[in-house]
Amino acid sequence: MNNIIITDSSLRDGNHSVKHTISLKSIKKYCEFANKVNIPIVEVGHGNGIGASSLLIGKSAHTDKEIITTAKKYLTNSKLGIHAIPGIATVDKDIKPAIDMGVNVVRVATHCTEATLSKSHLEYLQNTDTTSLGVLMMTALIDTKTLVENAKTMEQYGAEAIIIMDSTGTYLPSDVEERIKALKENLNIDVGFHAHNNLGCAVANSLVAAQNGAKYIDACIRGFGAGAGNAPLEVLLPVLEKSNFNMGIDFKQVIIEADKVMDYLVPNIPTINPVNVLTGLNKLFSGFERPIIKASKLNGIEYSSLIFELGNRKLVAGQEDLILEIAQNLKK
Question: Which of 21, 40, 81, 168 is within CB 3.0–4.6 Å of 61 for a Cys-Cys bond?
Fold first, then answer.
């Protein structure tokens, strides 16, 4: 059987869906579960990663230090991971303290065309005991050749693997196959895939990624994540097992916990709403759902027209403040 390394992003990506308010009590309880069932990597933190708590992006209910130290206390088998975006997270202010607190895996994430911004972060991590992974976000916005070029840049800086994110939930299985194959052919390191479910393809896309050589696959329990959510852990695991992949995770306990999390972590199971379909088709960040709906209501316009305009302008994560301005212009 082929081995797959699952990164559980419930305590990071899931934070998007609850405005970064996951409690320390919930972190403790979920980490105890993840540790018991042998989930390889548990990613925690603000939805936009370490150092991201702010009025513009969203204030976190707890500091990075509180989140990391709480999670670390209960992860003795599972590795503790964080998401770090250069420009938001710095080496000295954020990454060094996180490693001192026991973080094992640092995922350095940039926009899909901005891999050069990861240089100082990835090069620093080469001299630490952590696993350093390069992450390319919003990858549906570029062609396969450009994706490979940016992935090779991160490899040169020392990334031990490259994870590509379908941040917009836009990919179909054929898109995933093309891109994972190209990465495998052109890189000397492992690759991975992070799915969003805007078009209902998160599990299928993750399976295709694994079938074409992806080593790292991301998932969240009950799909707990931004917008339409991510690949649901409790669905992805049996699908991968039926396809002869081995994760080393106790599925029976996962399926039981998938009910329990509704009482302490997941207030609502992500569903595919029309707004999610439209953001996926227009290649917009899944976390734009709330500001799009809010700006549309405030200005009395259809959210579909706002989404089409945002898509035309190719807005990316971090440009949330422009959504209201563009909605106001459409109203005029």
Answer: 21
Token pair 């590795």 is found at: 79
Q: Look up the CATH number of the domain holding residue 115.
A: 3.20.20.70
Query: Where among 220, 239, 264 does a domain terminate?
Result: 264
* CA–CA gap between residue 20 and residue 12 (Å, rounded): 8
pTM of the model: 0.95
- Residue at 269 is within a domain: no
Give the pLDDT of residue 330: 86
Tell me the average pLDDT across 170-177: 98
Q: Round to whole Å and give the CA distance between 115 and 306.
A: 29
The secondary structure of residue 222, as a DSSP letter, is G
Three-state SS letters, 76-140: CCCEEEEEECECCECHHHHHHHHHHCCCCEEEEEEECCCHHHHHHHHHHHCCCCCEEEEEEECHH
**pLDDT (mean) for 148-171:** 98
Q: Which parts of the chain fold into alpha helices (H)?
A: 14-17, 24-36, 64-74, 96-100, 119-125, 144-157, 173-186, 202-211, 233-242, 251-264, 274-281, 289-299, 303-313, 321-331
The yes-or-no answer on residue 16 being catalytic is yes
